[in-house]
């Protein structure tokens, strides 16, 4: 089980066009930070917590828009070759269980999203350094924000992987993702509905705060993860391969 | 024939799509070391059957046993010993042939030397470093076969492996199949909608039509159905038939002619002599050979055409 998992995980890595993907991972955090830098540049009266304001602005750009989009794009990319060139039947006629194929793809996806978080972290610190506020940074708060954002995107990642497996076309899962990312700007600002919306969860989890755990949000995220992960997995295991 | 000689066996294998029965109680038997030709018009249920043999789709009822084990129970162990190419070849177009094989090799967990070996086998060594999307259809098909061979399979399942190939490519795939069978003793299932494709290479054939297996036997048995028949034109044809039958000849009367099968030259002469002595006029004697293709079409139904 573990051996076939690691083999498949490596195989997924071999399939990727790494340079292009890295570029894709860099764009989102970069744009998010540049735009927050330009906005934050206008106000100077934030006082002590200048880094928090600046970082929160970035989180809204990145967490509400780019991070969910990246999750959708990578989920679609992970199924793209299989959807297009009959790769599913190739994979499934090899002596590996479908579950292991699913776990490997899912793992590659969440590792990629962790890399995206790492890049966002580096860029954020870089921007704060640029503004000369580096001494103010509360590293625990920042680290927690990055980590919780990663956890909070996992349900969406599972959902997008499922959607990408469901549709043969590369464009449909992307379109769905974009379509549901737009209302984020409204749902994300709603105290009541925001936590229930998978596209808004990463940004909500990333807003820097001293309060350690938001139990309501955590519960919804865990529930959402179980629903989408198990749903996608079961569907993956039982689907007839007709293409 | 012992049980261990049978490597693939299905019993009552059935697959329904809503009301349409794509595969209807198919009992398929493949013996170790043989080339099994799986024939039928397009849409007869060949690919559906093959997909069920590989566990790509579920059966509605019936069972599949490979190497004497149930596919449902021992799927992984069975698939380790089976190589396959289902319909159009699957590949990662943005990668080279070599990289495609490397991915497969890692998943299968076989030695890197297998890659060189299979590349040579399908004669792709000199284009191994080219991206697969630049390959011709024939080269893609051969890469598909290379992928199927990578794990040193005991059974090779090839679904329409010559589809879309030019005559040269078809010939190449056919000789490859024969080589693998002769030199490595691989059991091969090869499907086609054209009899001529597997006529020359198959030891046994199964013919499927509208989801039902309508013929499964040795290739020779199918060929015997196309043995030449003798057609005699005589006067008073019905009376002549009765006359011959009465003294022990095996003949039949169809239309204006007397028909007989498997006559030697001497027997033909004797039959004519008998007829002449019986005061019948013999107008003409012809040998009529029914082409194998017509037998196949007769079995599968012409209207479903090729």
UniProtKB/TrEMBL annotation, chain A:
The record, for Pfam families, names: ABC2_membrane_4
Q: Give the highest taxon in the source lineage.
A: Bacteria
Segments traversing the membrane: 59-79, 100-129, 141-163, 170-187, 217-236
**Which UniProt keywords are given for this protein, alphabetically ordered?**
Membrane, Transmembrane, Transmembrane helix
Question: What is the name listed in the Swiss-Prot or TrEMBL entry for this protein?
Answer: ABC-2 type transport system permease protein
From TrEMBL, chain B:
| PROSITE patterns (alphabetical) | ABC_TRANSPORTER_1 (PS00211), ABC_TRANSPORTER_2 (PS50893)
Q: Which InterPro entries match?
A: AAA+_ATPase, ABC_transporter-like_ATP-bd, ABC_transporter-like_CS, P-loop_NTPase
According to its UniProt entry, this protein's organism is Marininema halotolerans
Q: Which keywords label this protein?
A: ATP-binding, Nucleotide-binding, Transport
Origin superkingdom: Bacteria
Q: Which family does it belong to?
A: Belongs to the ABC transporter superfamily.
Domain named ABC transporter is located at 8-235
Q: Pfam families under this entry?
A: ABC_tran
What is the recorded name of this protein? ABC-2 type transport system ATP-binding protein
Q: Which GO terms describe its molecular function?
A: ATP binding; ATP hydrolysis activity
Q: Does the keyword ATP-binding apply?
A: yes
Q: Which Gene3D superfamilies match?
A: P-loop containing nucleotide triphosphate hydrolases
Q: Where is the signal peptide?
A: none
Q: Where are the transmembrane segments?
A: none
């Amino acid at each position: 089980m573990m051996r076939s998992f690691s083999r498949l995980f490596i195989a997924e890595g071999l399939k990727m066009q790494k340079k292009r993907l890295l570029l894709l991972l860099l764009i989102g955090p970069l744009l998010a930070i540049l735009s927050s830098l330009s906005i934050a540049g206008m106000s100077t009266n934030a006082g002590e917590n200048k880094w928090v304001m600046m970082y929160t602005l970035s989180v809204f750009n990145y967490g509400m828009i780019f991070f969910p989009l990246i999750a959708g794009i990578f989920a679609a990319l992970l199924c793209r070759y299989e959807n297009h060139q009959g790769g599913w039947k190739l994979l499934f006629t090899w002596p590996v269980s479908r579950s292991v194929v699913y776990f490997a793809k899912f793992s590659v996806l969440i590792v990629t999203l962790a890399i995206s978080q790492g890049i966002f972290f580096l860029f954020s610190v870089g921007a704060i350094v640029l503004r000369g506020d580096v001494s103010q940074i509360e590293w625990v708060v920042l680290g927690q924000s990055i980590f919780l954002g990663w956890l909070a995107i996992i349900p969406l990642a599972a959902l997008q992987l499922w959607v990408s497996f469901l549709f043969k076309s590369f464009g449909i899962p992307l379109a769905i993702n974009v379509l549901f990312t737009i209302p984020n700007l409204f749902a994300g600002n709603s105290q009541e509905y925001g936590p229930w919306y998978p596209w808004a969860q990463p940004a909500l989890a990333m807003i820097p705060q001293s309060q350690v755990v938001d139990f309501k949000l955590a519960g919804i995220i865990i529930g959402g993860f179980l629903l989408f992960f198990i749903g996608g997995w079961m569907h993956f295991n039982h689907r007839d391969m007709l293409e | 024939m012992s049980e261990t000689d049978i490597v693939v066996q299905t019993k009552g294998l059935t697959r329904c799509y809503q009301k349409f029965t794509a595969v209807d109680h198919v009992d398929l038997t493949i013996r170790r070391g043989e080339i099994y030709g799986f024939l039928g018009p397009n849409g007869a249920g060949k690919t559906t059957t093959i997909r069920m043999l590989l566990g790509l789709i579920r059966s509605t009822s019936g069972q599949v046993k490979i190497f004497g084990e149930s596919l449902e129970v021992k799927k992984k162990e069975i698939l380790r010993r089976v190589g396959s190419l289902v319909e159009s070849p699957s590949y990662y177009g943005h990668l080279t042939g070599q990289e495609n094989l490397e991915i497969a090799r890692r998943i299968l967990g076989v030695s890197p030397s297998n890659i060189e070996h299979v590349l040579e086998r399908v004669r792709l060594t000199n284009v191994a470093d080219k991206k697969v999307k630049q390959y011709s259809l024939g080269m893609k098909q051969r890469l598909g076969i290379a992928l199927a061979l990578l794990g040193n399979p005991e059974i090779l399942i090839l679904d329409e492996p010559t589809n879309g190939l030019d005559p040269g490519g078809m010939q190449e795939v056919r000789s490859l199949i024969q080589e693998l069978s002769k030199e490595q003793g691989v059991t091969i299932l090869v499907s086609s909608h054209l009899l001529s494709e597997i006529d020359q290479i198959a030891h046994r054939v199964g013919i499927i039509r509208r989801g039902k297996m309508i013929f499964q036997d040795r290739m020779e048995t199918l060929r015997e159905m196309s043995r030449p028949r003798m057609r005699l034109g005589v006067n008073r044809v019905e009376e002549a038939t009765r006359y011959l039958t009465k003294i022990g000849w095996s003949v039949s009367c169809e239309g204006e002619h007397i028909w007989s099968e498997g006559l030697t030259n001497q027997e033909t002469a004797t039959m004519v002599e008998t007829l002449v002595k019986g005061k019948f006029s013999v107008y003409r004697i012809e040998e009529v050979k029914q082409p194998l293709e017509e037998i196949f079409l007769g079995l599968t139904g012409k209207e479903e055409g090729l």
